[in-house]
Specification:
Length: 268
C-alpha cells in the first residue's frame, strides 16, 4: 500500500467523502483515512482509476470504501451522489474537497472564455457544490471537518506559465474556506484550506506549457531543487498526513486556517 504506515485509528466510526480520489493527493488521502478506520466515499470522474483505488483499499480494509462516478461541477449529480454515499455509509463526518485541474495553460490574450470557464467550473463550482451538498449531513452529526485543496499558486507563489485561471480558482478557494469557517463555526464544523507546492502526481500532464508559451510569459525560474526541504517535489502521502491531522480531533481548535505544505518552495 503506497502510504505512510500507521497504527493509529483516529477515524473509527467516521465516514469521509474524498473528491478526486482516483489519483494523486485524493487517492493518498483516501488510503490514509481508511488506514485509520474511516469508511471512504471516493468521488471522481475517472472510473477505472477510482475503482482501482476502491479495490486497493477494500483488499486490505474490507468493504470500507466505495467509488462514485461524479463530476464535481455537476450540481444534480453531486447532490445525488452525496445522498447515495451518506445513506450507504450512514452519514458524513469528513469532507475532502480536493478534485481539481490545472486547465489549459495560456496567456490571458489567448485564453478562450470556454477554457477559462471550465477551470473555474471544476475548481471553484466543484468546491462549492461539494461543501453545499455535504453540509446538511455534517450538521446532522453535530460536528465535522471540511478540508479544501487550494495551492501556493493562489496565495504565495505565482510562478506558473499561463496559469491565470488556475491561480484565480486557488485564491477563490481560500476566500470561500475562510467565509465557510466563520459561517459554520456555530455548528462545530471546521473548514481549513491547504496550499500544497509541487506534489508528484499526474495532474493534467497534457497541458504542459508549450515552448512558445514559455517565451510569451515572463518566466520566473525555479532554482535547482525547487523545494529546500526535499530534493524534488513533495509526495501525495505528505499531503495525506496533513489531511488526516485536519480531519482528526487533534486539530479541534483549528478552523479557517490556510496551511502551506511546500517544503519552503514559496519562500524561494
Ligand atoms: P491528479 O490529477 O493526480 O488528481 C486529481 C483528480 O481529480 C483526478 O483523479 C481527476 O480525475 C479528478 N477530477 C478532475 N476533474 C474532476 C471533476 N470535474 N469531477 C471529479 N473529479 C475530477 O492531481 P492532484 O495533483 O492530486 O490534484 C489534486 C488537487 O491538488 C487539485 O485541486 C490541485 O489543484 C491541487 N494541487 C496539486 C498540486 C500538485 O503539484 N500536484 C499542487 C498544488 C495543488
Amino acid at each position: 500500500m503506497p502510504n505512510n504506515q500507521t497504527n493509529r485509528q483516529r477515524f473509527q466510526g467516521k465516514t469521509a467523502i474524498v473528491t478526486g480520489a482516483g489519483s494523486g493527493i485524493g487517492k493518498a488521502a483516501a488510503i490514509r483515512l481508511a488506514q485509520e478506520g474511516a469508511k471512504v466515499a471516493l468521488f471522481d470522474l475517472q472510473n477505472d482509476r477510482t475503482r482501482s483505488t476502491e479495490h486497493e483499499i477494500n483488499n486490505i480494509f474490507r468493504g470500507v470504501s466505495r467509488s462514485f462516478d461524479v463530476d464535481v461541477s455537476d450540481p444534480e449529480r453531486m447532490e445525488k451522489a452525496v445522498q447515495e454515499a451518506a445513506s450507504y455509509f450512514g452519514g458524513i463526518d469528513i469532507v475532502f474537497a480536493n478534485a481539481g485541474i490545472n486547465g489549459v495553460l495560456a496567456p490571458i490574450e489567448e485564453m478562450s472564455f470556454e477554457d477559462w470557464e471550465r477551470t473555474l467550473r471544476i475548481n471553484l463550482n466543484g468546491t462549492f457544490l461539494t461543501v453545499r451538498y455535504t453540509l446538511p449531513y455534517l450538521k446532522e452529526k453535530g460536528e465535522g471537518s471540511i478540508i479544501i485543496t487550494s495551492s501556493i499558486n493562489g496565495s504565495d507563489r505565482f510562478a506558473g506559465f499561463g496559469m491565470s485561471a488556475y491561480s484565480t480558482t486557488k485564491a477563490g478557494q481560500v476566500g470561500f474556506a475562510k467565509m465557510a469557517a466563520l459561517e459554520l463555526a456555530k455548528f462545530k464544523i471546521r473548514v481549513n484550506v491547504i496550499c500544497p507546492g509541487a506534489i508528484a502526481t499526474n495532474i493534467d500532464q497534457t497541458s504542459e506549457p508549450s515552448d512558445e508559451l514559455k517565451e510569451i510569459v515572463i518566466p520566473v525560474e525555479y532554482p535547482e531543487g525547487s523545494q529546500p526541504l526535499a530534493d524534488g517535489p513533495g509526495q501525495p502521502e505528505d499531503v495525506a498526513d496533513l489531511v488526516a491531522f485536519l480531519a482528526s480531533s487533534e486539530s479541534k481548535h483549528i478552523t479557517g486556517a490556510r496551511i502551506v505544505i511546500d517544503g519552503a518552495e514559496s519562500l524561494l
